[in-house]
Amino acid sequence: MTDLKNKIVLITGASAGIGAACANVFAAQGAKLILNARRETRIDELSDQLKKEFGIEIQKLIFDIRSLDQVKQAFNSLPEEWKNVDILVNNAGLAIGTDKFQDADLADWEQVLDTNIKGLIYITKEVLPNMIKRESGHIINLGSIAGREVYIGGNIYCATKFAVNAISKAIRADTLDKKIRVSSVDPGMVETEFSIVRFRGDEEKAKNVYKGLQPLTPEDIADAVLFCATRPPHVNINEILLTPLAQASAFYAVREE
Ligand code: 8X3
Q1: pLDDT in tens, 34-51
Q2: Which of 36, 97, 172, 227 is the most interior residue, by most CB within 10 Å?
Q3: What CATH number should be reported for the domain holding residue 105?
Q4: Residue 255 domain flag
Q5: What is the spatial distance between Cα 69 and Cα 67, in angstroms, rounded to a whole number?
Q6: Is 210 a residue of the active site?
């Protein structure tokens, strides 16, 4: 088992959902956390809770991952020793809308592309050089079942998650001789703010996505992320695809009346 005590773990999009659940499980292992999000109040609250509960050290990094300047500036503002990130959890990501390709709004797509692909690349490019220097480190990307199957209305969101899948494989190949671990954790239906954001705040529509079935929870995903992170150093978990028991693929789910 890889011991996570005092390991430095940077989590993007840590203010809620899967990111916050990951923060909790790593904190419970005694890791030191760097928590990123745009929403400062949420990060303040989470950070206070984790410090109180687990007595760990935390750095808060408030920045918008879509901005290369902000990413660079925030990472550089870290105290030197905190720049040696042991585990990067690339969690920040979103979907907006389920419109068909011909109807969807370009501005929405730009936001999804900028967050899910460019943001992930920006922060990884900051963190990776120190991992390579130390020949040690683990990048855990949050992919999706949408990165394996394209469903109607998924279009560019699916494309970004296919890209995350390719990026995970690319980093794994390119850093093969540098002892860097790269894992992709790819969930199916998880109930978080994801669907509320996707349906632009329409909570009714968001609820309907999970109607009649028991979706995964953010804690289920954090558990899979922790599994990747705690394998012995010679083991790399390449991919985990997890769905609710009631979901077989992006196309098949069974719902109770
Ligand atoms: C989110 C899962 O099924 O909405 O990544 O594409 S799904």
Answers
A1: 999 999 999 999 999 999
A2: 36
A3: 3.40.50.720
A4: no
A5: 5
A6: no
